[in-house]
Specification:
InterPro entries: ArsR-like_HTH, ArsR_HTH, HTH_ArsR_DNA-bd_dom, HTH_MetalResp_TranReg, WH-like_DNA-bd_sf, WH_DNA-bd_sf. This is ArsR family transcriptional regulator. The chain is α+β, with helices and mostly antiparallel strands. About 45% of the residues lie in helices and about 15% in strands. The protein has two domains: about 70 residues, Winged helix-like DNA-binding domain superfamily/Winged helix DNA-binding domain (Arc Repressor Mutant, subunit A); about 30 residues, no CATH class. Strands 1-3-2 form a three-stranded antiparallel sheet. A hairpin with a 2-residue loop joins strand 2 and strand 3. Helix 2 crosses helix 4. The longest helix is centred in the C-terminal third of the chain and has 14 residues.
């Protein structure tokens, strides 16, 4: 999971998908935000999917991606455990560390 997020483009992609309208996006929705080719963006999305951070569904020509909530909660728990100064007030209802 952390290896997949180690690339700045993938970290930004995860953020864009998570914050996109309805919580899902296809390459066509987010490719304008990057100076990367569509195949490169698709590759990065595949790495995130294989790491369990995203899930997807094909709809016609496009593949739509969304964040797997359980993966974010697991990631947040690991990060919170690694920070001895964090307390329960730093974790939102979604399981994400807020501080």
């Amino acid at each position: 999971m952390f290896k997949a997020l180690g690339d700045p483009a993938r970290l930004r992609l995860l953020s864009l998908v998570a914050s996109h309208e309805n919580g899902e996006a296809c390459v066509c929705d987010i490719s304008g935000s990057f100076d990367l080719s569509q195949p490169t963006i698709s590759h990065h999305l595949k790495v995130l999917r294989e790491a369990g951070l995203l899930d997807c569904e094909r709809r016609g020509t496009w593949v739509y991606y969304w964040v797997v909530p359980a993966a974010l909660q697991q990631l947040s728990a690991v990060l919170a455990a690694a920070d001895p100064t964090a307390d329960d007030s730093d974790v939102s209802d979604t399981g994400l560390v807020t501080a």
